[in-house]
Structures are given as C-alpha cells and as structure tokens.
Amino acid sequence: MTTTTAATTSSRTLQALALSDPLTLGMWAQPRAVVSRPHLSLIASAFKQAAIAPGGRLLITTPPQVGKSLTAATYGPAWYLLRHPGRRIAIGTYADALAHRRGRDVRDVIAEHGHRWGVGIRRGSASVADWETTAGGGLRSVGVGSALTGFPADFLLVDDPHKDRAAADSRRQREAVWDWWSAVATSRLSPGAPAVLIMTRWHDDDLAGRLLAREGRAEDGGRWHVIHLEAIHTGKHGPDPLGRAVGDPLPHPKVAEGGTAALLSHWEDKRRGSTARDWAGLYQGDPQPAEGALVTAALLAERRVPYGQALPAPERVAVAVDPSGGGRDEAGIIGGYLGADRLVYLTHDWSGVMGSDRWARTACLLAVETDADRIVVEKNFGGDMCRQMINTAWQALHQEGRVPAGRSAPFVAEETAKRGKALRAEPVAQALVEGRVWLADDLPELAREWATWQPTSSESPGRLDASVYLVKNLAPHVPPYVPSQHQGRKLADISLKRDVPNTPRLPDLGRRWWH
Q: Three-state SS across 82-138?
C-alpha cells in the first residue's frame, strides 16, 4: 500500500467516524481548536442521546469557558444537520448578534465540510441568521425576544438566554425570557422535537431553575436530563457525572489531561476573584445560596402554616399596596392580619402587572374579600393621588354592587419610604426569623422575592415592599434588627431551631378566618 493510499484510507476512516457525535466532528474539522476532555465527551454523548430521543430535553450547566458552547452550540447543530439535512434547527441566545454568530459558525462548518456527506448550503441562502441546506433543511438563529414566525423547528437549542447578572436579577427580564421560551421558542417545535438548553446559572429562578421546578429532572420522573458539572465537585448534588471524588476539579480544554494541580490552581483563582454568590452560581451551578438575602427559602418554608392547621381569629385586617410606577410595571398587593395570638399572618397575594386604574380596584376588592379595615399604600410615586385613586375605586365598586351594602370604606393609611429598602425590610425579616410573621397560605411569588432579593440590588420587588408595609402597619412595635443579638450573623444564616428555641406554636382557634 502506497503512502498516498494509506493517507486516503485514514482520511476516509476519520470521515466515517466524524459523525459519531458532535465532539468527534469538531476534533475532525478543527483538530487544533477542539480537544477531547472527559466533560466534553459527556456533553457530546448527552447531546446525541437527546437528539434521537422523541421529545428529548437536555440541560447542560457548567462554569464559563470550558468548551460547552463550542461542543454543543456549534458542532452540535452542525452534526445534527449533517445527519439530518432535511430538518430545521432554531437557535436562540440572549442577543441577536450572538445568535447570528452561532448561526454563522454552524453554516461555515456545513459549507466547508458538508460536501463530504452530500450536504451543502442552498444558493442564495447567504444570511447568517436564516439559511437552508440543499436538502431543504436549515437553521434560523434569533435573540431571546425575537420571533420565529413561519419557521417550524425540528430541534431547538438555547445557549445562554440570560446576558449577565443584572439581567438574571431583573424579574422583568427573567419573565421576558420565560415568555419567549413559552410563547415563541417551544411553540415552533414539531411533534417529538428535542430541545437543548445550555447555560451558566445566574439565579435560582433563571430559565433553567424555572424549567426544573415546573417539569422536573429525569432521575426524579421528570422531563429534563441534566448535565451539572461543578468547578470543584462537592457531593452536594449527588454523584458526579464524571465520577469525580469530592474536591476534584473540572477538566479544562486548555489544561493538559492529568494536570490536577494546574486545574485546582485555575479554579481556586476563579474562586478568589468571585463573590460567594457568583462562585456558587456561575462556577458551582448552585445559585440558591444568594449571599446577602435577608431570609432563606428554607426558613420561609418553615414559616408556612401547615395545611389543615386552624388559624387564630383576626384582631386587625389590612391590605398593603406598593403601586406600580417609578419605572416598574408590577404592583405589589398583599393582604394579611394581626391575630389574637399577636402574630402577623400574610394571607393573600394579588400582585401583578397593572396600571393605576387596576391596582386601586384590585386593592379594594381584596379589602372586600378579607373584610380589611384599612388599606396601606406607599405614596412615593403617586403622592396624594394614591388616596384619591383608592377612594374613587371604592365608590365605583360600590355603585357596581361589588361592595356589600352598609360596608364602610376602609381607612387609607399612607406610607412614605424615607429609608433604604434594606433598612425597612430588616425588621420584618427579623420577625420572620423569630416566628412573629407567618405565611398563612401558599404564596410562592412573595416567598421567592424574599428569598432572592439582595439588599444591594437596584431591583424594587413590589410584593416584598407591600408585605413590609403591611407588617409595619399591623405590628408597629416590631423591634429593629440588632446584629449583635446573633453575633453579627446575617439573618439568612440563622437557623430557627438552633437560635430561636422559644418560637410560639400556632394555636388551634377554629377554621381559617376567611372561609
């Protein structure tokens, strides 16, 4: 066999192997740029399995810059189209520019190497964002928020739907990402089409967090197969997919295999240069321990009155409103009461995106529902108009017959936010810790705001603000938070069972008061 013949045979063998999975394709097409590492082999294998499983769902979450996007977002779609040139792929990412770059990269692979498998780019299909193969398939790439109208997709890939920390911390932007996923991206999928989500975790309610909360993990009987790779394996989330022991580092494409010391040094450098919150979310894929949150989700779960537990009779009932305005579309509207046991119970959350014409009516309707004797409203952005809008709404509802005959209008108590949000919220957080404020019903959005809002954040969550005004009005003598009481620890670090042994038990004084 001549040297030329041997080289040709070797090339054909490599070509035949190239379509075994996305990583192998990348190593064949760009041998200097794409290298084999255990975590990339795992990602490529999982991508392949998701692509062939009817309705497959795959979530890939790793630290930044470890090769996941090159493997799964560039060579993944290219591999899929080379194997199925008549199918269509939709790619989404946080911005049009990045989405178009992803589309161009995939098109370049097909244009350069597709002829080896009889696949090419259709003439006249020059757009990097929307192009077709010679077999009738193709790819469209868009930014989150953009339309996919007229493009039925056989495969959906979303890579980094949240731009950065600020975008993930913004409730409005998180909702926009979710709305796009629900109303645009998945609505274009053909029956049985797979979907792959690739992202770094920023927030417990980011797109990955919300999908897992709603649809569950495959190992728990849910829908999503999850590849979760920590920078340093902790064992917190069960066995490592790579078989690493606790304390072992994640491989990196630019660190030689077996270079454990170099990997540990690299990840330690990242840890030292990150806040605790960023290290937990971005590098460990665990955004729940949001450093600085005034209370934890676990504490709020303990503060939820057990189902079936009777509540004490109310002594004073109120509705609190943090109106929309000041750059925010969502109004916080929370109802609750001060019980005969001198504890505060938060009972209703009627918050939502609404203008001034709706929040005033909604607050009044909740006051009717709960028989509240007062409505507490924050007036920073509305001034004296807030009282007038509530009184006008009450009169209109009375004329419509939606207020019982003889029912007096509730007293309108106005609040002015003179101190920073953190200073206002800390006494209420302390009261939650000490068991003096309880969630009397399932109020998940209110609990989420309390467990995720950061005192340093520019966000102004309406539910949290309204609950603060409510507690302050119902129990004006809640003492301020004194750090020395808990040796300087944050409220989120305090365990109820360990630090507050004398938490009062809930009395059994009859049926729930609003039934």
A: HHCCCCEEEEEECCHHHHHHHHHHHHHHHHHHHHHHCCCECCCCCCCCEEEECCCCE
CA angle 447, 450, 456 (to 5 degrees): 160
CB neighbour list of residue 476: distance below 8 Å, 6 or more residues apart: none
Structure tokens at 258: 């077996």
Say how many C-beta atoms besides its own lie within 10 A of residue 118's C-beta: 10
Pairing of strands 138-143, 88-93: parallel
Sign of CA dihedral 219, 221, 226, 230: negative
DSSP state at residue 39: H
Residues in Cβ contact with 359 at an 8 Å cutoff, skipping those fewer than 6 apart: 321, 323, 324, 331, 333
Instruction: Provide the residue type at 79 as one letter.
Output: W
Of the spans 33-42, 230-239, 375-384, which averages the highest pLDDT? 33-42
CA angle 258, 262, 265 (to 5 degrees): 140
For the beta carbon of residue 20, count every other beta carbon within 10 angstroms: 14
The answer to whether 157 and 76 have CB atoms below 8 angstroms apart is yes
140-189 pLDDT, tens digit per residue, is 999 998 988 888 999 999 999 999 988 998 889 999 999 999 999 999 99
Q: Is 69 helix (H, G, I), strand (E, B) or coil?
A: helix
Q: What is the DSSP string of 399-443?
A: HTT-S-TTPPPPEEEEE---S-HHHHHHHHHHHHHTTSEEE-S--
pTM over 0.85? The answer is: no
User: Is beta strand 330-339 parallel, antiparallel or unpaired with respect to 314-322?
Assistant: antiparallel
SS3 448: helix
Judge whether 83 and 71 are in contact, CB under 8 Å.
Answer: no
**How far is residue 295 from each of residues 90, 114, 426, 512, measured CA to CA in Å?**
40, 55, 9, 26
- What whole-number distance in Å separates Cα of residue 318 and Cα of residue 335? 6
19-48 pLDDT per residue, tens: 999 999 999 999 888 999 999 999 999 999
Contact 471, 437 (CB under 8 A): yes
